Amino acid sequence: MYLARVTGRLVASHKYKGLEGVALQWIQPLDERGEPQGQALVAAAAISSGPGDLVHFVDGREGALACPVTFVPVDAAIIGFVEQAAIGDTLLDREPKRG
Amino acid sequence: MFLADVIGTVVSPVQIPILDGKKLLVLRVLFPDGRPSGKTRIGIDSVQAGVGDRVLVLDEGNGGRQILGDPKGAVKTIVVGVVDSIELHGRFTYGVNAQPTSPAPAKGAKSR
Amino acid sequence: MLIGKVVGSVVATRKDEKIEGRKLLVVQVHNHRNQPVDQYIVAVDSVQAGSGDMVLFATGSSARQTETTEGRPVDAVIMAIVDSWDLGGANVYEKWQRA
Prior knowledge:
Shape of chain A: elongated
CATH superfamily of chain A: EutN/Ccml
Strand content of chain B: 35-45%
Strand content of chain A: over 45%
Number of domains of chain B: 1
Helix content of chain B: under 10%
Order of helices and strands of chain A: EEEEEHEEE
Strand order of the largest sheet of chain B: 1-2-3-5-4
Number of strands of chain B: 7
Low-confidence stretches of chain A: none
Mean pLDDT of chain A: 92
Strand order of the largest sheet of chain A: 1-3-4-6-5
Structural class of chain A: mainly beta
CATH class of chain B: Mainly Beta
CATH class of chain A: Mainly Beta
CATH superfamily of chain B: EutN/Ccml
Order of helices and strands of chain B: EEEEHEEE
CATH architecture of chain B: Beta Barrel
Structural class of chain B: mainly beta
Oligomer: heterotrimer
Number of domains of chain A: 1
Mean pLDDT of chain B: 87
Distance between the termini of chain A: 29 Å
Number of helices of chain B: 1
Number of helices of chain A: 1
Shape of chain B: elongated
């Protein structure tokens, strides 16, 4: 499981069956300082997240288990909001830093 | 499985039900000699680990679901042990017997 | 999941019998800003995608979680055809863009 920031939404009206109604969102994985770590990817949202939110997500087949129908080809799913992450002296908040 | 240092905690008020009441830890993934590998993970605590602990982390869904007792849980990364000591190439790199001398001090290694 | 554009197809007469009859498409990966990157994958199609389509694909064991790929030696599956996406509120890709 990883920390990530939701960066955008993706619309796909033609999806594999079982994925209807599942929101797809762009996420950028973050490291311990809140800096981008690796490539941005698309994840299925199992919670009502939206762009700007700090979240945690799971990759691999476990991503499908977070979806309403679990036999679906999903390899990443957003599974929780992060209200705050305390890492040493650093605090990552749910809202992105302004300015 | 991999080794990691617990460097923080995550507060998550809204999440999938299986994670309710579980403590989430921010993990700095390490090489066996204690050097950070540059990766950051979030893990579910199952052994009362806390910030500053060096831990053993399971990163595989089936085993993780067995530990949490839910065959359908969307879980993968679970902290399954608090490390007492690590021996690498005949040398203790972590723990009470740690020998943080040659060839290079293992960063983050400390005796407890 | 990652997105990419279908740039071709693969025909293989001699292949594992378990993947006979499966449509294999070549996908060039695009990043979240819709720039093509130098990364290509061959994926099995599960949503009737075609050449030129922007698609979403899942990899790893998740790719075997469709009726077309279950229990077959497949590690990438196209599971959605992308209509549009936005990043930070700005539209990045639109399938039905007027010429």
